[in-house]
Amino acid sequence: MINTANPKNTCPLYNDLNTLDQGDAIIAEYIWIDGTGKTLRGKARTLRKEINTVADLPDWNYDGSSCYQASTENSEVIMKPVAMFRDPFRRGKNLLVLCDTYQWTDNTFSGLKPANTNFRAGSKAIFDKAKDSKFWFGIEQEYSLLVE
User: Fold this and answer.
1) How far apart are CA 87 and CA 26, in angstroms?
2) What's the average model confidence in pLDDT over 98-104?
3) What residues have CB less than 8 Å from 70, skipping those under 6 apart?
4) Looking at 9-104, which runs of residues are DSSP E strands?
5) Which of 9, 52, 57, 79 could form a disulfide with 99 if both were Cys (CB 3.0 to 4.6 A apart)?
6) CA-CA distance, 96 to 98, in Å (whole number)?
7) 11 burial level (CB within 10 Å; 0-12, 13-18, 19+)
8) Contact at 8 Å (CB) between 37 and 117?
């Protein structure tokens, strides 16, 4: 069992892999929410260029039929990066990339629509219309007083 609390005291294989020289390569782990709406999925990609902003990251794809997001006839789902963070597991210049997911509107592959769990696309359109506003988010709590 790997001790994740202290990666220095893990199995020797992890230590060996974690210290290999990657040269100029960056491993970007693309992460998305699958069709259940409950499970995170990931797919790693090696990039050979400097990544400074999300715009530097290329779109990518995966087979959505195995993730409850598409039929087998038109199973390609497109991942579009929306945020990136330093990868705390692989370290170095490696990245965790959070993605929005999109499906093709038809078999002509000319248009994209948000995938079934891509709720951020609709939210972004609303928030973009109110860029000058300062949003407050909070937890709603309701109480009932009962008399015996």
Assistant:
1) 10
2) 92
3) 63, 64, 76, 77, 103, 115
4) 26-33, 40-47, 60-63, 76-86, 95-104
5) 79
6) 7
7) exposed
8) yes
Q: What separation in angstroms does the CA of 117 have from each of 8, 103, 140?
A: 37, 11, 24
Pair of tokens at residue 39? 């499970």
Q: What whole-number distance in Å separates Cα of residue 104 and Cα of residue 77? A: 7
pLDDT at 79 over 90: yes
Q: What is the CATH number of domain 24-129?
A: 3.10.20.70
Does residue 48 sit in helix, strand or coil?
coil
Instruction: Measure the CA–CA gap between 60 and 81, rounded to whole angstroms.
Output: 9
Of the two residues 145 and 33, the one the predictor is more confident about is 33
**Residue 69: both structure tokens together:** 């997001």
Chain position carrying tokens 């970007």: 28
Contact 47, 26 (CB under 8 A): yes
Which pTM value belongs to this model? 0.76
Q: What are the tokens at 40?
A: 């995170």
